[in-house]
Design brief:
With about 240 residues, the chain is α+β, with helices and mostly antiparallel strands. The chain contains eight helices and five strands, in the order H-H-H-E-H-E-E-E-H-E-H-H-H. Strands 3-2-5 form a three-stranded antiparallel sheet. Helix 1 runs antiparallel to helix 2.
Length: about 240
């Protein structure tokens, strides 16, 4: 690819990725599959490596997906209206890497083998729940803070809302460190998703989400985790886990 053509394509990809990130993280109305998004991101990464003169610190390749300080769309809830305080993460809350290529997995294994200098190692694989990333802090066995991922450096304090999710313990039992963090995903089970769709259809004839992912984003995050009024009944009426 010629330099000028690469520059044009890089700008096109950045615009497409920024727009779809906004739709995903802010508007809660994604229009592109994760696979399609990742393929475009990989294309942009490759072009920025091949043409480093066009790399930029504000490129989507250098950012963690974030719902903080982003332009708002029709379905989004403004930060001012949400009324949340942003707090720093004790440790950066970064995204997991992904791949659709066997060759990239083999390259990862080769890099790990090189770093470990031939020391034998094994892999542990498990399914990843695709929900709302959350960081819980316990102190003295009590839940004291819950932060969304935000931009990976700081996130929204949604502690009072998370306290209303029944599967998250407020007080631990047994042995545990004096203070520690636990990170995971808050997800919407299919039965709760189906109930949410029925409720939405009764209130609004517009199309309902096809999968729990955008529903989790629009219901769990801005309406439940991100409803500043923690007395709102939705958190327990549609059980997140």
């Amino acid at each position: 690819m010629q330099e000028q053509a690469a520059k044009i394509r890089i700008e096109q990809l950045r615009e497409i990725l920024r727009e779809n990130s906004r739709r995903y993280y802010v508007d809660n109305a994604p229009t592109m599959s994760d696979y399609e998004f990742d393929q475009l991101m990989h294309e942009l990464e490759g072009l920025e490596v091949a043409f480093p003169q066009f790399d930029s610190p504000d490129s989507p390749t250098h950012r963690v997906g974030s719902d903080l300080d982003a332009p708002l769309g029709a379905n989004a809830e403004s930060q001012a209206r949400q009324g949340f305080v942003q707090r720093p993460h004790r440790y950066p809350m970064l995204s997991l890497g992904n791949t659709y290529s066997l060759e990239e997995i083999e390259e990862f294994a080769a890099r790990a083998d090189k770093v470990l200098d031939g020391t034998a190692f094994s892999y542990s694989c498990e399914l990843k729940f695709d929900g709302t990333a959350i960081c819980l802090t316990y102190r003295g066995g009590k839940l004291v803070q819950a932060l969304t991922r935000g931009d990976g450096i700081q996130g929204d304090d949604v502690t009072e809302n998370v306290r209303r999710i029944e599967s998250i313990p407020q007080q631990l039992r047994g042995d545990y460190p004096e203070e520690f963090e636990i990170r995971g995903e808050i997800l919407m089970p299919y039965e709760a998703f189906d109930a949410l769709n029925r409720e939405r259809e009764a209130q609004d004839p517009s199309p309902t989400p096809a999968t729990p992912l955008p529903a989790r984003s629009s219901s769990s995050t801005p309406k439940k985790l991100r409803t500043a009024d923690s007395s709102a009944p939705s958190t327990t009426s549609r059980p997140n886990r």
